[in-house]
Write a structure and sequence with these properties.
α1 packs across α5. The radius of gyration is 16 Å and the shape is globular. By secondary structure, the chain is an alpha/beta fold. The protein is built from 5 helices and 7 strands.
């Protein structure tokens, strides 16, 4: 049977490119996104808000029942693009709940299934805003919360043969480099875990 990947945020530019990459290489692809309908070439699509823990778990259960999930790529995101002093508490909370909370929900939904099968790959996209000239401190803080989460959760999951990594990519994103790296980590890599993998042309 073909391997299967769940791509969160499959309706965004990165998500759609990842869908195309994995489909072209023979993978089954399931997608979740907040949009009501999908325009990407996924084999199964469920509309879900990644901030909703129970909904994400239910979606993963439904997908895993028809195509056991071998890998997950979280490309779901949210950009606030406001200066810190102009950001309200509600906006800050929404951003963190989407970026960190969404990644946590996704991991909570799929990791137990991977542990049970003693196999799996989880890749979390984290953008590098360090070289942007415009305001990005709030988005940067949210993105970097994934570093600690991914590394710590990766250590927890490594004995179960579930490899969790964060992919740290320059903005604006080089989508081809991102999808190539995601595919390598999901399809080829057999060792890397609990790492922040830089897609920046620099040593991180």
């Amino acid at each position: 049977m073909n391997k299967a990947i769940l791509i969160a945020g499959c309706e965004g530019n990165v998500g759609k490119a990842a869908v195309a990459k994995f489909k072209a290489n023979g993978w089954q692809v399931a997608g979740i996104d907040i949009k009501e309908k999908s325009t990407s070439d996924v084999d199964k699509y469920i509309s879900v808000d990644i901030k909703d823990t129970e909904a994400v778990i239910a979606a993963a259960d439904e997908i895993d029942a028809v195509m056991p999930i071998d890998a997950v790529f979280n490309a779901a995101g949210y950009v606030l693009d406001k200066a810190y002093e102009d950001t309200t508490v509600d906006e800050w909370q929404e951003l963190l709940t989407t970026i960190l909370g969404g990644a946590g929900n996704l991991c909570k939904a799929v990791a137990p299934k991977m542990v049970k099968r003693h196999e799996g790959k989880i890749i979390l996209l984290s953008c590098d805003y360090a070289k942007q000239s415009d305001v990005a401190v709030v988005d940067a803080v949210a993105a970097n919360t994934l570093h600690g989460f991914g590394k710590s959760f990766g250590v927890e999951m490594a004995p179960e043969n579930v490899r969790v990594n964060v992919m740290y990519a320059n903005t604006p994103l080089d989508i081809e480099s991102v999808t190539e790296t995601v595919f390598y980590l999901a399809d080829k890599d057999t060792y890397t875990s609990a790492q922040v993998v830089a897609v920046t042309g620099e040593v991180f």
